[in-house]
Amino acid sequence: MTAQATADGARAALGELVGDRAEEWDLTGRIPAETVREAARRGLLCAQVAAEHGGLGLDSRANGELTAYAGSLCSSLRSLMTSQGMAAWTVQRFGTAAQRGMFLPRLTGGESAGVAFSESGAGSDLSAMRTEIRREGDTVHVTGAKVWVTGAAYASLLVVFGTYGSGAAVVVVPADAPGVRIERVPDPMGCRAAGHADVHLDGVRVPADHLLSGAGLPVALLATTALTYGRLSVAWGCAGILRACLDSAAAHARTREQFGKPLADHQLVARHLAELAVAEQVALRCCEHASACWDENRPELGTQAVVAKYVASREAVQGAATAVQVLASRGARDGHPVARAYRDAKLMEIIEGSTEISQLLLADHVRTGRG
């Protein structure tokens, strides 16, 4: 099968799984467990994993386009793709060959994973993490508490970041291991069905081969590797949000009449449509460039992933607000695609590095003469 055929098949499978159920998932705050398992089994949640590990083997551009399509349908499911992809990339990047063979087929075979970064006292400042990972012989001990772990409510594996001596480490923890307690975030503003949860790790013990290589490296190095994938995934998802908002606003403006003519013929409304169209294109171009950096292994990948996430998330927030404005009361109903986009997009300015953190990273890039 050609790469394009694989990508086309993945898109069709994703559309089939979501269908017209995104509103129901949003209102109930749940994606059926069997749907999550089926998405994982088809390799849709981490589509860049190579075929040798049961994945689809998509490159970053093709996976990004799939992610954007998911974002246009259901940002909660797209959030699971981001989380699963980050988990898989972390294992691929820091795992040994044996660890890749142990964990990646599980992530492409029906199981799902959450990536545990943030803590109540360590959000943007990951150096303040207090979760402790400690090895004693053939056992690794994990103690701490994580907050807002996307997908944890569905996960069978948790990829946990924590302190390790004077550095940091990443350990893969089974969600059903003794000492693990998962508590759903009760009423998230956006991506309501993404399974956000707080994770408590009370003296958890796992085999030593669950500790990924690289233990002891600085937390910034370990975290940035995973966050680069996450930022790019979020950016593509935001491009999808913009596409959904543009489609909804344009369809409404063409058919809704006011003062004897379609809304689209009123200049102020037409301006909104033009701004939405430009926002989608700007977000897409940033995403495409960052994915090209990934696929071509360019050194500027990290910075371009930040640029894409920063631009696309800001455009999605404004674009969703514009779409609600165009649809007015029709778009203000809970569960409507643009109302859902309005809530979901705001979270995208916070996760995987807030807008302010992105600004600081980009300013530092320029200040140090690399811009």
Q: What would you note in describing this structure?
A:
By secondary structure, the protein is of the alpha+beta class. Helices cover 53% and strands 15% of the residues. The strands form three sheets. The protein has a four-stranded antiparallel β-sheet with strand order 2-3-7-6, with no helix packed on it. The chain has a three-stranded mixed β-sheet with strand order 1-4-5. Helix 5 packs antiparallel against helix 7 and helix 7 runs antiparallel to helix 10. The two termini are 41 Å apart.
Strand order of the largest sheet: 2-3-7-6
Shape: globular
Number of strands: 9
Number of helices: 11
Structural class of the helices, strands and pairings?
alpha+beta
Multimeric state: single chain
Cα-to-Cα separation, first versus last residue: 41 Å
Arithmetic mean pLDDT = 94
Sheet with the most strands?
4 strands, antiparallel
Helix proportion range = 40-55%
Approximate strand percentage: 15-25%
Task: Chart the SSEs and their pairings.
Layout lengths: L2 H16 L3 H7 L4 H9 L18 H14 L1 H20 L2 H11 L5 E4 L15 E5 L2 E11 L7 E8 L2 E8 L5 E5 L12 E11 L11 H37 L1 E2 L2 E2 L4 H29 L5 H27 L9 H12 L6 H13 L4
Parallel strand pairs: 1-4
Antiparallel strand pairs: 2-3, 3-7, 4-5, 6-7, 8-9
What would the keywords be for this entry?
371 residues; alpha+beta; 4-stranded antiparallel beta sheet; 3-stranded mixed beta sheet; 9 strands; 53% helix
Provide a short characterization of the protein structure.
With 371 residues, the protein is α+β, with helices and mostly antiparallel strands. It has helices at 3-18, 22-28, 33-41, 60-73, 75-94, 97-107, 219-255, 267-295, 301-327, 337-348, 355-367, and strands spanning 113-116, 132-136, 139-149, 157-164, 167-174, 180-184, 197-207, 257-258, 261-262.
